[in-house]
Amino acid sequence: MLRLAQELLQREDTNLIGVAGRHRRPPVAGYEPTIPMTSLPLARPWLYESWRRLKWPLVESATGAVDICHSTAGIPAPSNAPHVVTLHDVAFLRRPDRLTRQGVRVLTNAVERSRSAAAVTCPSTVVYDDLVAAGFPADQVHVVPWGVDAVDVRADDISAVRDLYGLPSEFVLAVATLEPRKNLRRLIEAHQLLTDVPPLVVAGPPGWGDVADDLQALSQHVVFLGHVLGDHLQALYAAANVLAYPSEEEGFGLPVLEAMAAGTPVVTSRGTATEEVAGGAAELVDPFDVDSIGHGITSALNNAEQLRAEGLDRAQECTWARSASAMMAVYQAVKEHNA
Length: 339
Hints:
Blueprint: H1 2-9, E1 18-20, E2 37-39, H2 46-54, H3 60-63, E3 69-71, E4 83-86, H4 101-114, E5 119-122, H5 125-133, E6 141-143, H6 155-165, E7 172-175, H7 184-193, E8 200-203, H8 211-218, E9 222-226, H9 230-239, E10 242-245, H10 254-261, E11 266-269, H11 273-278, E12 283-285, H12 290-302, H13 304-317, H14 320-337
Helix pairs in contact: 1-14, 6-9, 7-12, 10-13
């Protein structure tokens, strides 16, 4: 959402102000706000609890009067203005076992409070369908897909990343938090069954559910890089022969577009939001079938040039300017309805 906010800020038809809780430390490198910010007097988790229980403090206490309050994460913020809420993914409503109990409690509360919003946005039709199935009126929910920036990765950048992480000359890349729904166990099993394919490299921080320890015990032939920062990640995509992203379910699946923008062929899951994101420019597999995943990797390696060209075309379609225009249409409709 930071990149979408930056794109909205460049438009002449809106004035955007970011609101955050109190922070003792500056933002982590790579996550600095891209828009003007103001802060409320409480820090998380007390801010979220106060919003949930007391509906205080109001956003306007930090911003003054606003036309629309847009909550993009966590608990929707209290405001006197019409409310737009973004719900990125609500698969936990169907599969609460995929999250911690605390995570389910917090996110379920966010969904319930979003029912009173003037509009709810989500990044894919998969999430749209989940929200309508959960009882949201169809005309309340709006799909605002995410975008991706064009990238220009130099050969020197790729060489530097190879040296920094000790990467092989060729590799299959997976970019994912190490958590159950990312389906890394089946990906590793599928890769192990293949012969004459590049090694598997996994980039992503540990998640929950002891997945990281289990996966590293599963294979001694997989390279785990841990969290990779944005600049390094772009070069990592460009260095890879294929991105393998057979997630069981996603709200969107931004790595699919990021890899395509870097000119990297993509393997991803059929019947999920990532199929929608890929737009016909990826090798699609059954995420629950190890053989299908393995066949998809082999096929992508064999058809790399075609997938690379199709992926670049798809990435060029999915701009952040397009996302900003879709979001502005929601803002304008809400403002006109409440005029």
